[in-house]
Amino acid sequence: MLDLAAPDLGIGGQSVSAVAVLLRDEALSGFRFARGRGLPYIGISTGIDEIGPEVAAFMQDPTRSTVVLGTEWLVGATSVTTLALARRFSRVDDIRIGLLLDDEDQGGPAQVSDLEGLTNAPPAALTRRNGTYVWRSGEDARTSFRAVDGTQMDAIAISPNDILALAAATDAPNVEINLATGMSSSRRRGERMSTEIVIELRGQDDAGRPLATRHAVVHPQGQFPLTGLGVAMVLERCLAMDGRPPAPAGLYFPCQLLEPASYRTRLEEIGGRILVLEAP
């Protein structure tokens, strides 16, 4: 049992290679422990409006260790796939991502609390519109998107770190991410619940012609296998367990560390798929 109030987290001299914080840690106990020992660190529950303390602490000694701001939706499943799909474009104008979380796809009390915070009293959500970052709230944050099976789902705007990562990597002037909870497409077919990430891109191809694509990342066991995959691959990258030199000390998003082809291979190995859908 960890003791988050203790400087050593209650583990004494036990050897530790890296630290992954999977729940909210307002005191930054895991972060401070990792930095104190010069260990790679990933946190996956710090919201886009809460990253200041981690970033400020990193800036005090940026060469000490690798820090990964892992609060991308399902730790890379969204951003890594979107950036791979964007390679078909010479210019990306619009990135619109719809996240469908089945209402049977729930974990422990901490995860349920985080979800209730997003859906019952959602904070303002960061979105990029016409090249400007804006905060959506109230009615402006309410929208809808089509699930994999074409069902229109009511949704609310949210802003995981994918918003920042995708806008910075593609310079797309319009980037938004919306979350719906309810029955997933697979459950409407009479199968077990699944998780869906619907990715719509618009822009131009290499010949300057309009191009629009629509894909989905799905997993028949819900959100948790994808979250676990992302955390595992980030730690492997930081610790050089993937056969390459370790990631240099620095501040990263998962999509800056994970190679798309390797990610897709591992995704498919654990039962996930990337579907090609009818373009918008």
Give a short synopsis of this structure.
This protein is an alpha/beta fold.
What does this structure look like?
This protein is an alpha/beta fold and 280 residues long. The protein folds into two domains: 19-72 and 228-257, no CATH class; 79-222 and 260-276, Dihydrodipicolinate Reductase, domain 2 (2-Layer Sandwich), CATH 3.30.360. It contains nine helices and 13 strands. The strands form three sheets. A seven-stranded mixed beta sheet has the order 7-8-9-4-10-11-13. Strands 1-2-3-12 form a four-stranded parallel beta sheet, with helices on both faces. A two-stranded antiparallel ribbon has the order 5-6. The longest helix has 16 residues, at 223-238. The model has no long low-confidence stretch (mean pLDDT 93).
Order of secondary-structure elements: EHEHEHEHEEEEHEHEEHEHHE
Return the CATH architecture of the largest domain.
Answer: 2-Layer Sandwich
Indicate the CATH class of the largest domain: Alpha Beta
The order of strands across the largest sheet is 7-8-9-4-10-11-13
Q: Would you report the number of β strands?
A: 13
CATH superfamily of the largest domain: Dihydrodipicolinate Reductase, domain 2
Low-confidence stretches: none
Structural class: alpha/beta
What is the number of helical segments per DSSP (H or I, 4+ residues)?
9
Strand content: 25-35%
